[in-house]
Amino acid sequence: MLKARLLSLALVAGCGTVENMSQTLNMQVDGQSLRMDGVINTRALRQFVQTLDDNPGLREVVLGRIDGSLDDEVVAEMGYTLRERGLATRMLPSSEVFSGGVDLFLAGVQRTVPAGAVVGVHEWETSFGSARDYPRGSKQHEPTRGYIEDMLGSDAFYWFTVEAASFNEVHVMTRGELIRYGVVTR
Length: 186
Hints:
Radius of gyration: 15 Å
CATH class: Alpha Beta
Number of helices: 8
């Protein structure tokens, strides 16, 4: 099952240009909850903000299956928007959230991960290299490191993700890790 997830993540990363031109993130409003599934791409920010604007009674974002992201800047902008609006984030026992989806999850003012949910992390990679190629203090770390510090009050989780797994692998976080790094608030 995890190997299939890794293949899925590799395919997402490999077809980024085509994926970024289409809607890849499904959003569905149910009362005070916004359910999201899919891949976060360049178009997701506009879609997300429009959905929030059209539904001012939303209180939480429920992440179902998020295979990652194709645009880390969009993830950060969505995250800051989510936080500014005071929304919680929650997963379901069947949720599987990976990579950039985890970064978005961190924006919730309250964050819930029940037993059974999968939270998968790994280092980032660009065409210029991966996170592990750059020493601490390098400007290449700053966008994601700074975002995580803004969301959690510390950058410890960022460094954990860099070391937990290479870009082509996924580390599924334990309950203890979720608590230790402040990923969950309850």
